[in-house]
Each structure stands twice: as C-alpha cells, then as structure tokens.
Write a sequence for this structure.
C-alpha cells in the first residue's frame, strides 16, 4: 500500500494510481483543473449543450438529480443561470435526516424549481441493501443504482434532453488521464464507476426474494429511442466543494458541526444516515476512512498542510459511524453483531494482517495508529 506524497490518498482507493514521482492521480486531476483544462472552451461547449437542450426540450430542458445537499443547490443555481427549465429529481433515501429534509424543502422553495421526490418501497430497499451488503460488502449499491437509474429513466420517458450531474469523480478523486478529461456520464462510465460492482438490476432478482417487478425503479431502458445528454457539471466549470457550499448557503442551505456524520466536513454527507456506511466499508476494503478523501481535498486547495492533516486524522482515529450503524441494524431488524460479522468478510487480505488478535495494516500512513481501538466494543 502506497500513499501520495502530496495528499494522503492510498493507491488502494479505486481510480488512484501513484506515479514514479510519488504523486497520485487525484492530485494530477487538481493540476489538470488548474493548468490543463481550457475552461473557456468547456464553458462554450456547455452553452452549446444548453442551446440544444432548450431547442429539444418540450417542457423541461434538463433534469438535475438532487439530494438537497450543497452540490444540488449549486447545480440548480448554475442550470437556471443558463436559462434552463429544471426538473429536480431525488431518489428518496429511506434514512433521510432532519437537516436533509429541511435543506431539500428550502432548496425547492428558495430556488423555485419543480421536484420529484421518488420513493421506492422501503421493504424493497431494505432487502436490496441486505443482499448487497452480504454478497458484495456494499450497502451503498442500491442507493447508487437508484440515484443513477431514476433520473436517466425519467429523462428518457419524459423526453427531457439533458441531465446535469455534479462533479466528475475521476477528476476530483482519481482516475486515468482520459477519465479526468471526460464530460459525459454514459453506460461505460456507469459500469466502471457507478459503485455497482459490475451488476445491473436484473442480477439481483431472487436475492432476498426480490422480483423483477420489485426492481423496476433501478432499471435503465436498454433502447432509449430518445437522445439524452448526460453530463458532469464539474467537467464544464471548475468544481470546488467549498465554493459550492458558499453559494448554497447564500441561498439558504444550512449545516452545523452538529450535523457531522463522517469525515471532516459538516457540510457534506449530511442528508442520509446510511451514506456514512458506504464510506465506512472503505476501511475494510481500502484501509481508509472518509477523512482521507476530505483532508486530501483540503490539502490540494491549500487550506490544510499535509502534517496538519495527519495530526487531524490521528486525533480523529477510526471514525466508525456507530449511531448510523445502529440505525441501519434497526432498519434491517438484525443485531449489530450481524453487521460486524459481514464487515469482517470483506476485510481485504492484501492489506490487512493479524498481529496477535489485532488487525493492522503494515506501513500504515500513521505510525502510532491506535489499532486496538479500531474494533466494535
Ligand atoms: Zn495525491
């Protein structure tokens, strides 16, 4: 396991590769954003897409997939700035937080958009999450499948020509040079980067008794018959999570330190209690926590020095979202021991070794890491 010498990402994180100079692909993405990408040309390309969408749109010009989080606000603000008639679409998490609901409500009212809050039968969500967790160690798989499939299917069926997604994750968190330059979210991208473990909805028929009909919301039409441009806003305008938060807050987005669920940002991952579980599984699979992501962005933006980031990480420790794990087990009506047993099945043997009865990662980023505290009590 190697770590970037500039930020703190490990090369176990999907998309992160570390070059001979010790610099990771996410840091190269930051360099691309500052030096390589011609933002004026990208803006012109965006304007052309807007013009096409406004010509082809027969009611709404674009769908903006939203959770109510800071990035959602920014996406809507930007789309409206260019004159697009927006339909905001949410996959409604079965574990929405109070602040998440408040922010979503005020976003719709304050920004003035039409909105669909798309709810899947909670029992289908429950069974799908259980199956995905037990089979592939990914509680977030149904969430990702739904939040990609619902806007894409609605765009096709309602004949809305454009979908404006948020960041290009490969540009922000690591990907190949070609992926970092990508502008469109297509089927190939979904298969590789959609957190779907190379599965589609029909691969889950039969799991936990799920039927073909149960999984309707997770399915994308195979023959669209209508062209939808599906783009990353972060490929056309330089993405900055802090700036997005500032813009959102200026319109009424709220957050406070009491909302912090995981990582170091109290303005992100706050609208769903189960998102923290998706990030937490990275500990077992990749040997990292959400703070590795957050702090690395802080380092690249010059807000936090690398030494300072290491001290924050050391102080924060394991960062297991225990309250959210409890909530998830209550949702599943299963004991917490079940959760921990399943986690153990996905501990990556390529990076973890057993020292006595304590699991450790040799050559971990922080030498005096408190391994003995990194286990359920
Ligand atoms: Zn890096």
């Amino acid at each position: 396991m190697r770590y970037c010498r500039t930020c703190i990402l490990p090369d176990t994180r999907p998309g992160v590769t570390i070059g001979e100079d010790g610099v990771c692909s996410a840091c190269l993405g930051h360099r691309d954003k500052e030096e390589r990408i011609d933002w004026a040309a990208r803006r012109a390309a965006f304007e052309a897409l807007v013009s096409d969408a406004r010509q082809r749109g027969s009611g709404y010009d674009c769908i903006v997939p939203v959770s109510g989080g800071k990035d959602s606000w920014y996406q809507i603000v930007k789309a409206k700035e260019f004159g697009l008639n927006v339909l905001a679409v949410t996959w409604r998490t079965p574990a929405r937080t109070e602040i998440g609901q408040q922010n979503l409500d005020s976003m719709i009212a304050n920004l003035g958009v039409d909105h669909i809050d798309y709810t899947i039968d909670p029992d289908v969500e429950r069974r799908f999450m259980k199956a995905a967790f037990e089979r592939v160690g990914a509680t977030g798989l149904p969430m990702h499948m739904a939040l990609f499939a619902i806007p894409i299917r609605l765009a096709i069926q309602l004949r809305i020509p454009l979908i404006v997604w948020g960041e290009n994750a490969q540009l922000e968190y690591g990907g190949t040079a070609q992926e970092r330059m990508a502008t469109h979210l297509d089927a190939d991208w979904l298969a590789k980067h959609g957190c779907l473990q190379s599965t589609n909805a029909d691969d889950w028929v039969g799991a936990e008794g799920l039927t073909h009909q149960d999984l309707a919301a997770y399915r994308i039409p195979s023959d669209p018959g209508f062209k939808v441009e599906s783009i990353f806003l972060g490929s056309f305008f330089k993405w900055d999570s802090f700036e997005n938060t500032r813009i959102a807050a200026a319109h009424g987005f709220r957050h406070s330190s009491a909302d912090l669920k995981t990582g170091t940002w109290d303005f992100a991952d706050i609208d769903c209690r189960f998102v923290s579980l998706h990030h937490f599984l990275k500990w077992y699979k990749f040997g990292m926590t959400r703070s590795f992501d957050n702090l690395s962005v802080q380092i690249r933006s010059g807000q936090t020095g690398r030494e300072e980031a290491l001290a924050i990480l050391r102080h924060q420790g394991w960062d297991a979202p225990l309250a959210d794990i409890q909530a998830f087990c209550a949702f599943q009506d299963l004991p917490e021991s079940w959760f921990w047993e399943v986690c153990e099945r996905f501990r990556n043997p390529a990076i973890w070794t057993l020292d006595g009865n304590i699991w450790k990662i040799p050559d971990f980023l922080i030498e005096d890491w408190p391994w003995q505290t990194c286990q359920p009590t």
